[in-house]
């Protein structure tokens, strides 16, 4: 691992996006061990939980406990997903550093996912921003534009809608706005075009590329996003997760393969690949029998591999 | 499928590279059905066989019969791999349109794969060129630089060696020279750098990018090659194949995912994706129980998908 500053930020979403997509509930102690292993590899931003009612997502019932533990890891940005104001209250009470609120560019997906229109979600975001300003002004708020590249319910999503929504969430007070390929429909040309337009609109407030590997294009899309200036990438160890409300969608980008790609390209991630591969151990231990993905873990690092210096 | 000319050439290598890497031998009639299905999807270049002694690769014992059938498909470029002059004689006698000779940039891999040094392979190529000039001057000869991005035996391969070898094979009379990531060690930065250098050296004689998905970077590497002007891509239906002499190497780029990527980007391949997916049927029928790969076949085409126009 290089002593120099990372050039890209890998934001691990497995403990939230991954765990909420599988049927089994990982015991809290296993979650903490897994998060510790991710941290030990050099990962410095983790979406550790989702603040949603436990009756909807029992996998996330221990969100506050998980956050409490994650806050003990020095230098780690502890993120949580919140679907609404109520979730934001709980997340802020738990002490997270960063909130992420999904706002869908597809009206159909927005209604199916959170039973709100896009405009209603922007208003919800504005309420969350006010709450944050009152209670925890240091906390960052990201709005992740989901279904930004297409929707399994409505099909194509107009690029103008995505650009409008990215501007609207920043206007409403979000610190950054990323784009999510919730449904695995993105292609590299579209990724370059859309991130380019969004950056022209909101500049450095452009947040993460959250790509899926549904049709095998996950890394190509991350490369495309990198090419147009994106420097934060969401991914999930073992490719765990997807979106339970977007039928047919599956497969977050695999953190191991993503980190391998950047490190092999000479782009510093701050992550030690061998330790990252070792972090699959506690994941597997906490979710016995759950299939994990990833080509680099299967093939191993190439002979004579040299990480970014 | 668009009526306009394709913008990239997808060169299907499954019937050669794929079939010679699996243990089972596909019956000839099944091979022909599979090739017909590939052709029906719009594929116009297929590496249909390898001309090697049947005792070494019994899967390829019917090479001449397969070529004979493939030659009946109008507009199809019928390619065969030959490891040496003897193979070239047989391939030319069978009537192929194009020969491909693997020439390894790694001395260690060259010795292990064909028991010749790189220089000896360049000399072998020159003999094949003379034979071609005498017997079948219309036939094209490609020299595929294998282990161009790294070698499982010797580790790193000097980029200067690759550029030198690409120039040497063109000097020896090859019509084109492509670069192969035989061992799945390439990364997009390296792909851009090396193809850029090779194009600077041999210009339009630069041939195919033959990428592997060993560490999940196959499509990202194809995108990188496209970005620097490469317009021919080798891939294998169902990701069948690899290199039996490069331990740990596996996984050709999946044709279905590659075609999906380009078509989704608006880059015409000339291939109908639904028919391409249907071509997995005869492949599976001829190789029962053999695992096939591909994310697009699993996920299906996105709702409202529009191919390149």
TrEMBL record, chains A, B:
Membrane-spanning parts: none
A Pfam family the protein falls into: HMGL-like
GO biological process: ketone body biosynthetic process; L-leucine catabolic process
Keyword line: Lyase, Metal-binding
Domain Pyruvate carboxyltransferase: 8-277
One MF annotation (Gene Ontology) recorded for this entry: hydroxymethylglutaryl-CoA lyase activity
Domain of life where this protein originates: Bacteria
Family: Belongs to the HMG-CoA lyase family.
Protein name per its UniProtKB record: Hydroxymethylglutaryl-CoA lyase
């Amino acid at each position: 691992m290089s002593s120099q500053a990372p050039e890209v930020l890998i934001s691990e979403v497995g403990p939230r996006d991954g765990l909420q997509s599988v049927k089994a509930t990982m015991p809290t102690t296993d979650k903490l061990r897994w998060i510790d292993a991710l941290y030990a590899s050099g990962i410095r931003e983790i979406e550790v939980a989702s603040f949603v009612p436990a009756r909807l997502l029992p996998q996330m019932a221990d969100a506050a406990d998980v956050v409490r533990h994650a806050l003990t890891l020095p230098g780690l940005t502890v993120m949580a997903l919140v679907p609404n104001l109520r979730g934001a209250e709980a997340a802020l009470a738990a002490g997270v550093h960063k909130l992420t609120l999904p706002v869908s560019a597809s009206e159909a997906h927005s209604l199916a996912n959170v039973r709100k229109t896009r405009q209603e979600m922007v208003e919800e975001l504005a309420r969350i921003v006010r709450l944050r300003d009152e209670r925890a002004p240091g906390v960052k708020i990201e709005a992740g534009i989901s279904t930004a590249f297409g929707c399994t319910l409505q099909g194509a999503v107009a690029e103008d809608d995505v650009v409008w929504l990215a501007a609207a969430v920043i206007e409403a007070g979000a610190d950054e706005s990323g784009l999510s390929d919730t449904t695995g429909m993105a292609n590299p040309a579209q990724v370059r075009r859309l991130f380019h337009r969004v950056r022209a609109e909101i500049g450095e407030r452009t947040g993460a590329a959250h790509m899926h590997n549904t049709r095998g294009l996950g890394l190509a899309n991350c490369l495309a996003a990198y090419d147009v200036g994106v420097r934060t990438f969401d991914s999930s160890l073992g490719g765990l997760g997807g979106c339970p409300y977007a039928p047919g969608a599956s497969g977050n980008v695999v953190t191991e393969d993503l980190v391998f790609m950047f490190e092999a390209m000479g782009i510093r991630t701050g992550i030690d690949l061998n330790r990252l591969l070792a972090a699959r151990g506690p994941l597997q231990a906490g979710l016995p029998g759950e299939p994990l993905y990833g080509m680099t873990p299967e093939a191993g690092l190439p002979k004579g591999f040299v990480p970014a210096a």
